[in-house]
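Worked problem 6 (solution included).
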Amino acid sequence: MQAEVLRIIEGGLTGDRTKVLNYARTLADNLEQSGDPRFAKRIRTTLAGKRFNVATLDGLSSKPVDQESRMEIVDVEIVLPEDVDLILSDFLRNEIDGVVAMRGKRDILARHGMDAQNYLLLYGPPGCGKTSIARYIAAQTGLPLVTARLDSLVSSLLGSTAKNIRKVFDYAAKQECVLFLDEFDVVAKRRDDENELGELKRVVNSLLQNIDSFGEGSILIAATNHQDLLDPAVWRRFNKVIEVPMPANGELEAYAQRFIQPYMSTRIKPKLYSALGGLSFSDLSTATKNAFYSATLEGLDGMFTAYHLARETYLLKHHRLDDQEGFIRYLIDAGCTLREIHERTSISMRRIQTVSRAARREE
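Solution. The predicted structure is:
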Protein backbone atom coordinates (compact mmCIF):
# COMPACT_ATOMS: atom_id res chain seq x y z
CA MET A 1 0.00 0.00 0.00
CA GLN A 2 2.99 2.31 0.37
CA ALA A 3 3.45 2.18 -3.40
CA GLU A 4 -0.12 3.41 -3.96
CA VAL A 5 0.39 6.31 -1.55
CA LEU A 6 3.58 7.35 -3.35
CA ARG A 7 1.83 7.19 -6.75
CA ILE A 8 -1.05 9.32 -5.42
CA ILE A 9 1.45 11.91 -4.18
CA GLU A 10 3.23 11.89 -7.53
CA GLY A 11 -0.07 12.38 -9.34
CA GLY A 12 -1.01 15.26 -7.08
CA LEU A 13 2.31 17.01 -7.56
CA THR A 14 2.20 16.67 -11.35
CA GLY A 15 -1.50 17.40 -11.71
CA ASP A 16 -2.24 13.92 -13.11
CA ARG A 17 -5.83 13.43 -11.96
CA THR A 18 -6.24 10.06 -13.64
CA LYS A 19 -3.23 8.72 -11.77
CA VAL A 20 -4.59 10.00 -8.46
CA LEU A 21 -8.01 8.46 -9.08
CA ASN A 22 -6.74 5.07 -10.22
CA TYR A 23 -4.24 4.59 -7.41
CA ALA A 24 -6.69 5.91 -4.80
CA ARG A 25 -9.22 3.28 -5.89
CA THR A 26 -6.50 0.62 -5.75
CA LEU A 27 -5.55 1.80 -2.25
CA ALA A 28 -9.19 1.53 -1.13
CA ASP A 29 -9.43 -2.03 -2.51
CA ASN A 30 -6.23 -3.06 -0.73
CA LEU A 31 -7.36 -1.49 2.55
CA GLU A 32 -10.64 -3.36 2.41
CA GLN A 33 -8.88 -6.66 1.73
CA SER A 34 -6.47 -6.05 4.62
CA GLY A 35 -9.28 -5.49 7.11
CA ASP A 36 -9.83 -1.71 7.13
CA PRO A 37 -13.19 -1.27 5.36
CA ARG A 38 -13.97 1.96 7.23
CA PHE A 39 -11.00 3.86 5.77
CA ALA A 40 -11.61 2.26 2.37
CA LYS A 41 -15.17 3.59 2.46
CA ARG A 42 -13.93 7.08 3.31
CA ILE A 43 -11.61 7.04 0.31
CA ARG A 44 -14.39 5.93 -2.02
CA THR A 45 -16.77 8.56 -0.59
CA THR A 46 -14.15 11.22 -1.22
CA LEU A 47 -13.71 10.07 -4.80
CA ALA A 48 -17.43 9.78 -5.51
CA GLY A 49 -18.40 12.24 -8.21
CA LYS A 50 -21.71 12.93 -6.51
CA ARG A 51 -19.97 14.49 -3.53
CA PHE A 52 -16.45 15.36 -4.47
CA ASN A 53 -13.82 14.63 -7.11
CA VAL A 54 -10.13 15.33 -7.32
CA ALA A 55 -10.73 18.45 -9.41
CA THR A 56 -13.05 20.06 -6.85
CA LEU A 57 -10.36 22.18 -5.23
CA ASP A 58 -8.64 23.23 -8.44
CA GLY A 59 -10.16 26.70 -8.27
CA LEU A 60 -9.04 27.07 -4.66
CA SER A 61 -5.48 25.84 -5.00
CA SER A 62 -3.65 29.17 -4.58
CA LYS A 63 -4.61 30.63 -1.21
CA PRO A 64 -4.43 34.39 -0.53
CA VAL A 65 -1.83 35.66 1.96
CA ASP A 66 -1.46 38.69 4.19
CA GLN A 67 0.91 41.24 2.66
CA GLU A 68 2.81 41.82 5.90
CA SER A 69 3.14 38.38 7.48
CA ARG A 70 2.90 36.31 4.26
CA MET A 71 0.58 33.97 6.19
CA GLU A 72 -2.32 32.31 4.41
CA ILE A 73 -5.57 33.99 5.39
CA VAL A 74 -7.91 31.04 4.72
CA ASP A 75 -8.06 27.33 5.44
CA VAL A 76 -9.75 24.99 2.96
CA GLU A 77 -11.23 21.64 3.84
CA ILE A 78 -13.48 18.98 2.36
CA VAL A 79 -15.76 17.74 5.14
CA LEU A 80 -17.30 14.29 4.72
CA PRO A 81 -20.77 13.56 6.16
CA GLU A 82 -19.40 10.90 8.51
CA ASP A 83 -16.97 13.44 9.99
CA VAL A 84 -19.77 15.51 11.57
CA ASP A 85 -22.19 14.20 14.21
CA LEU A 86 -24.35 17.00 15.59
CA ILE A 87 -26.70 17.20 18.55
CA LEU A 88 -29.25 19.93 17.78
CA SER A 89 -32.67 20.96 19.01
CA ASP A 90 -35.55 20.26 16.64
CA PHE A 91 -35.74 23.95 15.74
CA LEU A 92 -32.04 24.22 14.94
CA ARG A 93 -32.06 20.97 12.97
CA ASN A 94 -34.97 22.15 10.83
CA GLU A 95 -33.43 25.57 10.19
CA ILE A 96 -29.99 24.20 9.29
CA ASP A 97 -31.42 21.48 7.06
CA GLY A 98 -33.48 24.20 5.39
CA VAL A 99 -30.30 26.09 4.51
CA VAL A 100 -28.91 22.92 2.93
CA ALA A 101 -32.14 22.13 1.06
CA MET A 102 -32.54 25.69 -0.25
CA ARG A 103 -29.36 25.33 -2.32
CA GLY A 104 -31.12 22.68 -4.37
CA LYS A 105 -34.10 24.97 -5.05
CA ARG A 106 -32.17 27.72 -6.85
CA ASP A 107 -33.78 27.02 -10.23
CA ILE A 108 -37.27 27.28 -8.77
CA LEU A 109 -36.42 30.54 -7.04
CA ALA A 110 -34.89 31.97 -10.20
CA ARG A 111 -38.05 31.23 -12.20
CA HIS A 112 -39.97 33.38 -9.76
CA GLY A 113 -37.40 36.19 -9.76
CA MET A 114 -36.11 35.42 -6.26
CA ASP A 115 -32.44 35.48 -5.30
CA ALA A 116 -31.10 32.22 -3.91
CA GLN A 117 -29.42 34.03 -1.05
CA ASN A 118 -27.90 31.71 1.53
CA TYR A 119 -26.41 34.03 4.14
CA LEU A 120 -26.47 32.59 7.66
CA LEU A 121 -25.49 34.43 10.86
CA LEU A 122 -25.00 32.27 13.95
CA TYR A 123 -24.62 33.77 17.41
CA GLY A 124 -24.50 32.46 20.97
CA PRO A 125 -22.12 31.34 23.74
CA PRO A 126 -18.82 29.70 22.80
CA GLY A 127 -18.62 25.94 22.48
CA CYS A 128 -22.29 25.35 21.58
CA GLY A 129 -21.80 24.17 17.98
CA LYS A 130 -21.51 27.14 15.61
CA THR A 131 -18.35 25.83 13.94
CA SER A 132 -19.81 22.33 13.83
CA ILE A 133 -22.90 23.68 12.07
CA ALA A 134 -20.69 25.26 9.39
CA ARG A 135 -18.90 21.93 8.93
CA TYR A 136 -22.23 20.09 8.78
CA ILE A 137 -23.56 22.38 6.05
CA ALA A 138 -20.36 21.93 4.04
CA ALA A 139 -20.59 18.16 4.42
CA GLN A 140 -24.25 17.97 3.46
CA THR A 141 -23.88 20.20 0.40
CA GLY A 142 -20.58 18.66 -0.73
CA LEU A 143 -19.05 22.15 -0.97
CA PRO A 144 -15.49 22.94 0.14
CA LEU A 145 -15.35 24.73 3.51
CA VAL A 146 -13.30 27.94 3.27
CA THR A 147 -12.59 29.35 6.73
CA ALA A 148 -11.15 32.83 7.12
CA ARG A 149 -8.19 32.88 9.51
CA LEU A 150 -8.68 35.88 11.77
CA ASP A 151 -5.13 35.66 13.15
CA SER A 152 -3.69 36.55 9.74
CA LEU A 153 -6.69 38.33 8.22
CA VAL A 154 -6.42 41.26 10.65
CA SER A 155 -3.20 43.03 9.68
CA SER A 156 -1.23 45.64 11.61
CA LEU A 157 -0.67 47.56 8.38
CA LEU A 158 -3.08 50.44 7.94
CA GLY A 159 -5.65 49.54 5.29
CA SER A 160 -4.45 45.95 4.85
CA THR A 161 -7.29 44.34 6.79
CA ALA A 162 -9.87 45.70 4.34
CA LYS A 163 -7.71 44.46 1.46
CA ASN A 164 -7.45 41.04 3.10
CA ILE A 165 -11.23 40.85 3.39
CA ARG A 166 -11.45 41.57 -0.32
CA LYS A 167 -8.89 38.83 -0.99
CA VAL A 168 -10.95 36.30 0.98
CA PHE A 169 -14.15 37.06 -0.92
CA ASP A 170 -12.36 37.11 -4.28
CA TYR A 171 -10.80 33.76 -3.45
CA ALA A 172 -14.16 32.24 -2.39
CA ALA A 173 -15.73 33.55 -5.63
CA LYS A 174 -13.45 31.33 -7.73
CA GLN A 175 -15.60 28.32 -6.98
CA GLU A 176 -18.84 27.54 -5.16
CA CYS A 177 -18.07 26.94 -1.51
CA VAL A 178 -19.14 27.48 2.08
CA LEU A 179 -17.34 30.62 3.28
CA PHE A 180 -17.11 30.62 7.08
CA LEU A 181 -16.27 33.83 8.96
CA ASP A 182 -15.73 32.85 12.60
CA GLU A 183 -15.27 35.46 15.35
CA PHE A 184 -17.23 37.71 13.03
CA ASP A 185 -17.33 40.62 15.49
CA VAL A 186 -13.61 41.23 14.93
CA VAL A 187 -14.27 42.57 11.42
CA ALA A 188 -17.95 43.55 11.77
CA LYS A 189 -17.79 45.74 14.88
CA ARG A 190 -20.11 48.70 15.34
CA ARG A 191 -18.82 51.76 13.50
CA ASP A 192 -20.08 54.16 16.18
CA ASP A 193 -17.54 52.91 18.75
CA GLU A 194 -15.68 56.05 19.86
CA ASN A 195 -12.67 54.00 20.93
CA GLU A 196 -12.03 52.71 17.42
CA LEU A 197 -10.05 54.48 14.72
CA GLY A 198 -11.16 55.26 11.18
CA GLU A 199 -9.62 51.99 10.05
CA LEU A 200 -12.57 50.10 11.59
CA LYS A 201 -15.05 51.98 9.42
CA ARG A 202 -13.06 51.08 6.30
CA VAL A 203 -12.98 47.43 7.35
CA VAL A 204 -16.74 47.25 7.96
CA ASN A 205 -17.51 49.14 4.75
CA SER A 206 -15.33 46.72 2.80
CA LEU A 207 -17.02 43.78 4.50
CA LEU A 208 -20.51 45.02 3.65
CA GLN A 209 -19.60 45.65 0.02
CA ASN A 210 -18.14 42.17 -0.35
CA ILE A 211 -21.13 40.50 1.30
CA ASP A 212 -23.46 42.33 -1.08
CA SER A 213 -21.59 41.01 -4.12
CA PHE A 214 -20.97 37.46 -2.85
CA GLY A 215 -21.82 34.70 -5.33
CA GLU A 216 -25.28 33.13 -5.26
CA GLY A 217 -24.05 29.57 -5.68
CA SER A 218 -22.09 29.68 -2.45
CA ILE A 219 -23.15 29.79 1.19
CA LEU A 220 -21.89 32.49 3.56
CA ILE A 221 -21.84 31.65 7.28
CA ALA A 222 -20.73 34.09 9.98
CA ALA A 223 -20.46 33.23 13.68
CA THR A 224 -19.96 35.34 16.78
CA ASN A 225 -20.01 35.02 20.56
CA HIS A 226 -20.52 38.79 20.89
CA GLN A 227 -23.56 39.70 18.83
CA ASP A 228 -23.99 43.00 20.70
CA LEU A 229 -20.76 44.26 19.11
CA LEU A 230 -21.98 43.84 15.54
CA ASP A 231 -22.69 46.86 13.40
CA PRO A 232 -26.47 47.25 12.78
CA ALA A 233 -25.93 47.20 9.01
CA VAL A 234 -24.36 43.75 9.24
CA TRP A 235 -27.54 42.10 10.53
CA ARG A 236 -29.50 43.22 7.47
CA ARG A 237 -27.11 41.40 5.14
CA PHE A 238 -28.13 37.97 6.42
CA ASN A 239 -31.41 36.43 5.34
CA LYS A 240 -31.15 33.86 8.14
CA VAL A 241 -30.12 34.75 11.70
CA ILE A 242 -30.12 31.94 14.26
CA GLU A 243 -29.21 31.86 17.93
CA VAL A 244 -27.22 28.80 18.99
CA PRO A 245 -27.89 28.68 22.75
CA MET A 246 -26.47 26.59 25.55
CA PRO A 247 -27.73 23.01 25.22
CA ALA A 248 -31.03 22.27 26.95
CA ASN A 249 -31.71 19.14 29.01
CA GLY A 250 -32.81 17.14 25.98
CA GLU A 251 -29.66 17.91 24.02
CA LEU A 252 -27.47 17.23 27.09
CA GLU A 253 -29.04 13.81 27.54
CA ALA A 254 -28.69 12.99 23.83
CA TYR A 255 -25.05 14.09 23.88
CA ALA A 256 -24.33 12.05 27.01
CA GLN A 257 -25.90 8.91 25.59
CA ARG A 258 -24.08 9.20 22.27
CA PHE A 259 -20.66 10.53 23.22
CA ILE A 260 -20.15 9.90 26.96
CA GLN A 261 -21.88 6.62 27.77
CA PRO A 262 -19.56 4.50 25.55
CA TYR A 263 -16.62 5.46 27.80
CA MET A 264 -18.33 4.83 31.15
CA SER A 265 -18.09 1.60 33.11
CA THR A 266 -21.64 2.06 34.45
CA ARG A 267 -24.93 3.29 33.04
CA ILE A 268 -25.61 7.01 33.28
CA LYS A 269 -28.06 7.76 36.09
CA PRO A 270 -30.61 10.56 35.66
CA LYS A 271 -29.08 12.50 38.57
CA LEU A 272 -25.82 12.83 36.66
CA TYR A 273 -27.49 15.19 34.18
CA SER A 274 -27.74 17.82 36.93
CA ALA A 275 -23.94 17.90 36.96
CA LEU A 276 -23.88 18.55 33.22
CA GLY A 277 -26.26 21.52 33.31
CA GLY A 278 -24.77 24.85 32.31
CA LEU A 279 -22.02 23.29 30.20
CA SER A 280 -21.55 23.71 26.47
CA PHE A 281 -20.92 20.82 24.10
CA SER A 282 -17.27 21.84 24.00
CA ASP A 283 -17.13 21.75 27.82
CA LEU A 284 -18.70 18.30 27.84
CA SER A 285 -16.16 17.05 25.35
CA THR A 286 -13.33 18.42 27.50
CA ALA A 287 -14.79 16.93 30.69
CA THR A 288 -15.22 13.54 29.01
CA LYS A 289 -11.60 13.50 27.85
CA ASN A 290 -10.34 14.57 31.26
CA ALA A 291 -12.43 11.89 32.98
CA PHE A 292 -11.01 9.35 30.55
CA TYR A 293 -7.45 10.52 31.32
CA SER A 294 -8.02 10.39 35.09
CA ALA A 295 -9.45 6.89 34.93
CA THR A 296 -6.56 5.72 32.76
CA LEU A 297 -4.02 7.09 35.24
CA GLU A 298 -5.80 5.11 37.97
CA GLY A 299 -5.39 1.92 35.98
CA LEU A 300 -9.05 1.61 34.97
CA ASP A 301 -8.21 0.99 31.31
CA GLY A 302 -9.90 4.19 30.22
CA MET A 303 -13.45 3.33 31.35
CA PHE A 304 -14.37 6.08 33.77
CA THR A 305 -17.12 6.32 36.40
CA ALA A 306 -19.78 8.90 37.22
CA TYR A 307 -17.43 10.25 39.89
CA HIS A 308 -14.67 10.98 37.36
CA LEU A 309 -17.08 12.86 35.10
CA ALA A 310 -18.71 14.77 37.98
CA ARG A 311 -15.32 15.82 39.34
CA GLU A 312 -14.18 17.09 35.93
CA THR A 313 -17.41 18.99 35.28
CA TYR A 314 -17.12 20.59 38.73
CA LEU A 315 -13.57 21.70 37.91
CA LEU A 316 -14.70 23.16 34.59
CA LYS A 317 -17.30 25.24 36.42
CA HIS A 318 -15.23 26.29 39.44
CA HIS A 319 -11.55 25.72 38.49
CA ARG A 320 -10.68 24.79 42.07
CA LEU A 321 -11.55 22.35 44.89
CA ASP A 322 -11.12 24.55 47.97
CA ASP A 323 -14.88 24.63 48.72
CA GLN A 324 -15.07 21.15 50.20
CA GLU A 325 -18.75 21.35 51.17
CA GLY A 326 -19.75 22.63 47.73
CA PHE A 327 -17.73 19.86 46.08
CA ILE A 328 -19.36 17.15 48.22
CA ARG A 329 -22.84 18.50 47.49
CA TYR A 330 -22.09 18.57 43.79
CA LEU A 331 -20.95 14.94 43.80
CA ILE A 332 -24.02 13.87 45.75
CA ASP A 333 -26.31 15.74 43.36
CA ALA A 334 -24.53 13.97 40.49
CA GLY A 335 -25.51 10.59 41.92
CA CYS A 336 -22.23 9.57 43.59
CA THR A 337 -22.64 7.43 46.73
CA LEU A 338 -21.24 8.63 50.05
CA ARG A 339 -18.86 5.67 50.17
CA GLU A 340 -17.60 6.38 46.64
CA ILE A 341 -16.96 10.02 47.54
CA HIS A 342 -15.06 8.95 50.66
CA GLU A 343 -12.93 6.39 48.82
CA ARG A 344 -12.19 8.68 45.86
CA THR A 345 -11.48 11.90 47.76
CA SER A 346 -10.16 10.70 51.14
CA ILE A 347 -12.59 13.14 52.80
CA SER A 348 -13.75 11.66 56.10
CA MET A 349 -17.04 9.78 56.05
CA ARG A 350 -18.24 11.85 59.00
CA ARG A 351 -17.72 15.07 57.05
CA ILE A 352 -19.49 13.67 53.99
CA GLN A 353 -22.44 12.46 56.07
CA THR A 354 -22.74 15.85 57.79
CA VAL A 355 -22.92 17.62 54.44
CA SER A 356 -25.40 15.05 53.13
CA ARG A 357 -27.74 15.49 56.15
CA ALA A 358 -27.58 19.28 55.80
CA ALA A 359 -28.47 19.02 52.11
CA ARG A 360 -31.47 16.78 52.86
CA ARG A 361 -32.77 19.19 55.49
CA GLU A 362 -32.68 22.03 52.95
CA GLU A 363 -34.65 20.11 50.36
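Discussion: The longest strand covers residues 219-224.
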